[in-house]
Amino acid sequence: MSASASSLPDAPRVLGVAVPTPLRRLFDYLPGPETPPGGWRPGLRVQVALGRRSVVGIVIECRATSEVALDRLKPIEACLDESPLPADWLWLTRFTARYYQHPLGDTLQQALPVLLRQGRPLEARTLERWRLSAHGQATQAADLGRARRQAELLELLRQHPRGLPTAAVTAQQFSRAQLTALRDKGLVDCLEEPRLASEPPRPKTLLAEPALNLNREQAAALSTLHDGLDRYHPCLLHGVTGSGKTEVYLQLIEAVIQRGRQALILVPEIGLTPQTLERFRRRFRVPVVALHSGLTDHERLDAWLAAMSGRAPIVIGTRSAIFTPLAAPGVIIVDEEHDGSLKQQEGLRYHARDLAVARAHHHGIPVVLGTATPALESLAQARSGRYAHLRLTQRASRHPPAKLELIDLRGRPRQGGLIPSAIDAIRQTLAAGHQVLVFINRRGFAPTLACHACGWLAECDHCDARMTLHRQPPLLACHHCERQQPLPPACPTCKSGDLRPLGAGTERAEESLAALFPEVPVHRIDRDSTRRKDAFGEVLAEIKRGEPSLLVGTQMLAKGHHLPHVTLVVVVNADAGLYASDFRALEHSAQLLTQVAGRAGRAAHPGRVLVQTLHSDDPHLRLLAERGYDALAEALLEERRGAALPPFRFLALTRFESAREAEAMGLAKEAGEALREWLATRGNAVTCLGPVPAPMERRQNRYHVQLLLSATQRSQLHEASAWLVAWLEACRDARRVRWSLDIDPQTLA
Ligand code: ADP
Ligand code: ZN
Ligand code: ZN
Which positions in this protein are listed as binding Zn(2+) 1 (predicted)? Predict the structure, then answer.
């Protein structure tokens, strides 16, 4: 296409702009004042007036007409970009908004780095470097008179003829104001240099360390992946923990980079550790860009732009990294695809794995879902043949994953939650010079505090939940609303002083283990103990040294980490998920148990996994223990089929919440009735269940009610939920009740 003005599309008379509002529609503006160099196109960021505010929006449609009279439309205040945001990014965000029935303006905002939301230029940041000008070189410090600090700054810069970056100057306790003062006097120049090389690196030798020789199963998986590099090719890489999935990713990425393409890797929040990044950076001689919550806004923008321009061949990030634009997408890898953190649980409730599959389909590239414990959705796709099913059943180390040994808690005395046979096993393991992981998925000292005189339990005033007892520091905390209160000196009901902790959390297990095994260190790892930055890394480094020690931890320790010296895992209580009401509870708890068990015996020694339970004859738990996750998953799939639940049906959950119970329930009833009537007249087969109170009805003093839509056909579900959303947006009563729609909900809580 030539760049001459005559080849530009006809100048539109109206621009449909997505602006940051919760409304599900575009706002129309007139073009102006100046036409951007390439003409008006979708994807350009613009500054527009919205009510009394001026906001950054994105042009979505260029049209000839508007439903509003043209003389009532305001002109665009300014166009912020010379060229539009990438088309693939725009496609993905529009797809996301449509699929999740979420306002487009808000979706676009969430998919942009903060600085771009604020209207900063779409350019890699430059590095400022300050250097004496010719005039500055000829000037003596004494000439600056009373400005003593400026004189000292002048002398500092004199010692650095090539100049100093701003950060190096401020590190010496000088301020930016002092720098600009010198610049304004003409003594100092500020040079701007690009922070990143502008060309993608083309190293002659891509690998910085040699690839491993793959075992037979890994080689077979890689060969299938190689065959699908040039098309949409969804694959489930289903390999037991420690089977070398990461090595398969690394060799696949190598092939992708050799073709001049980029790899996007999504990992769970808990998995994006320095160790993971290190593994990728050690292998390749090209930039590996990481997108995680620890970045500053500037770093995030740089990373985003490096991916967008193609300068970064490898992009690794958590959930939201799915929205990173790529110049030359070659593969998307979703590691631990079953992990709950891939689904956003508020606002825009997207699932990054599902978007990864949609995006790969759009680009015509492979997508690899890797896990030891596939989500039932992914397993069903693999069983039906829609996804290639690549199996890795062998561990790279000699020992197969340990089997779960169920041990019955009934009638046994407990110390810190552990029964005598578990304590004996711990003692033997430590005596053999190995490490033990005690897994307990409750942080705090005890799940709650109870009065032994009258049976009172510490409950949160704002939630239908018990408060957790903490000892470090001593207080009661609600893990649902984060409220905290001091420990009561006596029972608030009967004034008895006999208040006792009920059950065990990580702090209590730590305390008991330290008393039982005073000769070894006990490391506790949970959200409380690792609040300080680096604390987790320091403990991990300590553990890796391999001295006999006890690790007490929540799921933070259960996933992803390679703990080569752990040969015994003790699960304090496996029962939480067995009888929970949520339809996915059993699946998630089996995944977690399998991941925890996978920590044992990964290196030189075989491992054991002891699972304490009150229900050692529970059929699901026995199936998991005797035949493993895959067998249980098959059984669960059949149960889901029988119960008409996902993946055999599609769900959308509408949540209503209000400070007044009757208001939430009232609106949900009205919405349900209106929807049922509409479904009947449309002949739409969606079923609408409820309204019913949410499993925890009161949270933070607000009442939660829900309406569940269920369908065998996605298209019908989408049609019905779109109608419901439109109805709710138009409904006057809906303004006092907060409502939200969750397509493909992960939980019905
Ligand atoms: P997963 O991602 O499946 O849990 P990893 O890729 O982390 O497994 O591999 C587990 C361990 O086995 C790692 O220490 C890795 O270096 C090693 N490993 C993987 N593949 C091989 C191989 N083909 N030969 C030797 N060691 C391997
Ligand atoms: Zn009492
Ligand atoms: Zn609470």
Answer: 451, 454, 491, 494
Residue 548 sits in the same domain as residue 410: yes
Q: Which atom of ligand 1 is nearest to the CA of 247?
A: 6
Rounded (to 5) percent helix, strand, coil in the chain: 35, 25, 40
User: Which residues are annotated as part of the binding site?
Assistant: 451, 454, 460, 463, 478, 481, 491, 494
DSSP type of residue 649: S
Query: CATH number for the domain including 621?
Result: 3.40.50.300
Q: Which residue has the tokens 């950076």?
A: 281
Ligand 1 contacts (CB < 6 A) are 212-215, 218, 239, 241-247, 396
Predicted model pTM: 0.87
Mutate to test the pocket of ligand 1, among 217, 246, 337 (most ligand atoms within 8 A of CB): 246
**Structural domain of 93:** 14-118
By the 8 A CB rule, do 6 and 91 touch?
Answer: no
Q: How many residues does the chain have?
A: 749
Q: Are residues 483 and 437 in the same domain?
A: no
Q: Which helix or strand (DSSP H or E) is residue 287 part of? A: none
Q: Could you tell me the distance, in angstroms and rounded to a whole number, from the CA of residue 498 to the centre of ligand 2?
A: 8
- Poorest-confidence range of 54-63, 157-166, 612-621? 157-166
Q: How many domains does the chain have?
A: 6
Closest ligand, as measured to the CA of 484: 3
What does the block give as tokens for 116? 């771009």
| Domain of residue 658, CATH code | 3.30.70.600
Residue 398 domain-assigned (yes or no): no
What's the average model confidence in pLDDT over 415-426? Answer: 92
**Ligand 1 atom at minimum distance from 598 CA:** 4
Are 265 and 244 in the same domain? yes
The neighbouring-strand residues paired with 63 are 14
Of 248, 242, 246, the closest CA to residue 395 belongs to: 242
- Distance of CA 554 from the midpoint of ligand 3 (Å): 21
Claim to verify: residue 264 and residue 386 sit in the same structural domain: yes
